[in-house]
């Protein structure tokens, strides 16, 4: 299956949205359910301007949706598949770190003085 350059650019742009740690923090805060900006700030420790900027990017990419409730706007994850994607990445990184740890442990044997 051959994807067009335009299609691949759309995929790349989506991954760019997920490539910022503040946006991942916001997504993690929203995993438990909808939150308003104040609740997201409290959950993440990020500043208001920073949260607003990243929410706008996440909303434009379709990762989050926004819903007006009275004077508050609540944000929620638009499609939970992003957490499946994050879990795949985390599992892969975990295996990678484990392999590196095993290699380092093997090197440590050479550093130990012989008895």
Short key terms for the protein model shown above:
single chain; alpha+beta; 3-stranded antiparallel beta sheet; extended
3D structure, described in words:
- The protein is an alpha+beta fold and 115 residues long.
- The chain is 65% helix and 12% strand.
- Strands 1-3-2 form a three-stranded antiparallel sheet.
- The longest helix is centred in the C-terminal third of the chain and has 31 residues, at 81-111.
- The protein is extended and about 70 Å long.
- The protein starts with a helix and ends with a helix.
- The model has no long low-confidence stretch (mean pLDDT 93).
* Tally of individual helices: 5
Terminal CA distance: 60 Å
What is the CA-atom radius of gyration, in angstroms? 20 Å
SSE pattern: HHEHHEEH
Strand percentage: 5-15%
Low-confidence stretches: none
User: What value does the average pLDDT take?
Assistant: 93
Shape: extended
Strand ordering within the main sheet? 1-3-2
Instruction: State the helicity in percent bands.
Output: 55-70%
Brief digest:
The chain has 115 residues and is α+β, with helices and mostly antiparallel strands. The chain has helices at 5-17, 21-30, 37-44, 48-60, 81-111, and strands at 35-36, 64-69, 72-77.
List the helices and strands and how they pair.
Elements: H1 5-17, H2 21-30, E1 35-36, H3 37-44, H4 48-60, E2 64-69, E3 72-77, H5 81-111
Antiparallel strand pairs: 1-3, 2-3
């Amino acid at each position: 299956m051959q994807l067009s350059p335009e299609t691949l650019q759309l995929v790349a742009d989506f991954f760019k949205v997920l490539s910022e740690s503040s946006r991942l923090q916001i997504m993690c805060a929203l995993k438990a359910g909808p939150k308003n900006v104040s609740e997201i700030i409290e959950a993440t420790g990020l500043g208001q301007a920073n949260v607003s900027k990243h929410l706008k990017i996440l909303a434009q990419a379709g990762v989050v949706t926004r819903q007006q409730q009275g004077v508050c706007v609540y944000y929620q994850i638009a499609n939970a598949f992003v957490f499946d994607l994050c879990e795949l990445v985390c599992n892969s990184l975990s295996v990678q770190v484990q392999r590196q740890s095993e290699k380092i442990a093997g090197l440590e044997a050479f550093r130990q003085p012989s008895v």
